[in-house]
Amino acid sequence: MFRITTLLIFLPVLLFSQVPAYKNPKLDVHTRTTDLLSRMSYEEKRAQLLCLMGWEMYEKKGRSVAVSQKFKDLMKVKPIGALWAVFRADPWTQKTLETGLDPELAAEVANEIQRYAIENTRLGIPIFLAEESPHGHMAIGTTVFPTGIGQASTWNRDLVQKAWEVKAKEIRLQGAHIAYGPVLDISRDPRWSRVEESFGEDPVLTGELGAAAVRGAGGGNLQLPFSVISTLKHFAAYGSSEGGHNGNAVNIGPIDLHQNFLFPFEKAIRAGALSIMTSYNSIDGVPSTADEYLLNQVLRRDWGFKGFVVSDLFSIDGVYSAHRVVPNLSAAGKMALNAGVDMDLGGNAFDKLDGEQLDTAVYRILARKFEMGLFEHPFVDPKKAKTEVRSQRNKDVALDVARESVVLLKNEILPLGDRYKRIAVVGPNAHAIYNQLGDYTAPQDESEMVTVYEGIKNLFSETDVKYAKGVAIRDTSRKGWEDAMELARNSEIIIAVVGGSSARDFKTVYENTGAAQTSGQNLMDMENGEGFDRATLGLMGLQEEFLKALKSTGKPLVVIYIQGRPLEMNWAAEHADALLCAWYPGAYGGTALGEILKGKYNPSGRLPISVAKSVGQLPVYYNKRRPRGNDYVELDQEALYPFGYGKSYTKFEYSDLSVGTFEIKFRLKNIGSVDGYEIPQVYFSPQNTSVVQAEKQLKYFDKVFLKAGEEKWITFTVRNEDLEYVNRNLQKERYKDPVAIGVGSSSRDIVLRGSLRP
Hints:
- By secondary structure, the protein is an alpha/beta fold.
- It has three domains: 22-387, Glycoside hydrolase, family 3, N-terminal domain (TIM Barrel, Alpha-Beta Barrel), CATH 3.20.20; 406-609, 3-Layer(aba) Sandwich (Rossmann fold); 652-756, Immunoglobulins (Immunoglobulin-like), CATH 2.60.40.10.
- It is built from 21 helices and 29 strands.
- Strands 11-8-7-6-5-4-1-12 form an eight-stranded parallel beta sheet.
- α3 (42-48) packs across α14, α7 packs across α8 and α12 (315-321) crosses α13.
- The longest helix is centred in the middle third of the chain and has 18 residues, at 355-372.
- The N and C termini lie far apart (84 Å).
């Protein structure tokens, strides 16, 4: 009797003291996820699919931070699964160096958010924090790299991987988990405002660098301490909208879609990417955010994607409000969820959801949280964030990327060495730090940045280096014109830094998606960046007139383009003594350019996108389908500078091409007097295929360092996948006839030719 009574007394205690399976770290992810899912109410499940704007969720007073009342009120109603851009600071968020978060405070805010979520909700589920990271974590005090188009100009997989290791670590040190990037949009129209974020016009280069970025971010191994979930952007074909209008309709065929636009995403997913973001556009009338074929068939069934899909900001809302394919927002949410979207960035649309698909989406998100260990380790160390974010090592990596991103397009005078004693550095981008950082950039401590003028002054320390702005990017005021001309006349050489800008300011009006409104009344510098599409590609304002006036002084003229898209360079290509493209080279771009001009570094960048002679030629991407078009009445159809192009301070010789069944090899020799990098490129030109192919398509490339006089055998292994193309049934078909092989230093400069038998 005693024994039975004792058991009855202690049984409730034993039952209630048992740890739920989802809180047991010894169990596998699937068991923990299904257990947690079984305990959740409908509202708790729905809330896990919501990702809201995060910068509103904290309060800061001096060095003290806490969660905001808005966050507390939100969590009472719906314990959300994710926040976006908690640490973001820019004119849109109205977070400045004074009101925003440095890395130490960011880590403290992350901890407070997790602590509140765990302690004040029924199930204690930690929150995913997602951050923008196109060229460094978009937050105060982080390392700023060149933008995507500059990273692509390095053609260096290892360096891109190293850059993303830095970005991932800085994000995790501050308590976030998801990096929005890399951007894998194929950019065929330079009028589009977001070319700067992309890796250019080619699927192979974009895919290789995208995969390298994902590997640098952890390769999908969420057990690593500094691994992040890479969110690939934007799925799909976002960079090829009609007229270059951001987010507009895309009209491409299914073969082109699969062979070119989807190719980089598949490569990055094979490398371990666990998240993908839908795009604002439609493809042949189907909104990408509600495209069941893309998200369920291609992404999940064909590619075996195991991660989760997030909408772009309010893009589910756009299925209703912009595309008008459903009658209301609730219908848009249902359509997107059923099509395969798991997370709503913006949090407006998922209000009435069906059970089975809801559970599937919630499972995908919760499983990633368990894999990352957030239930056991939700907090970070603010002291480590303070000392290890933007460390000297990280800044050194950013400088390496900046060095390798600069493309030398024309040269009759560089390197300058110590020949000149008076240098004039002029132009709107010569001494404007935000103009060289690109869009999606946080406010900066300018003492940490190096402008082009500062970089030149530092590298030419024995030379009299002086600066004058002269003109602006867009403004047509001549206020500084004469000062700059006087400086130029009194110099021995002129370095003019022109181009564009994606620098936002606090006067700009923004859409609710963060894209800028372009009224045409505000003559700030910004002519690029999200929402700033162009109708023309020439230099804006008085810049070209300024260059011509500088040339008229008779002094040697070096022109540097700082830009987010390939602007027209016809005048500079003909008249400048040297021409360089530096894109947006990041925080240390000034140092990189100073080293190149001095001759301390031999430029090694190559174009990842073609430079048009005229906007009337567009599109001018190199891998167009056959047949070759006719020239225009006024102009030929060739790019001014083709894909893959870039010069060096030395010369390289290619010889002895050998093409076998399984490998392509040749000799590469540095025949100049300067050590340097060459980027050998191998192009395929297939014959007699069942559907029309490009005249040439990049298949292999490498970045090879050779000392002066050094020679190496370069070998590329031929893989089965390289001998396949997409046929009319959207299936992979193998080449049947011999494939023409071209080897050279750009898509136009082919110096060795051979034939490969499949």
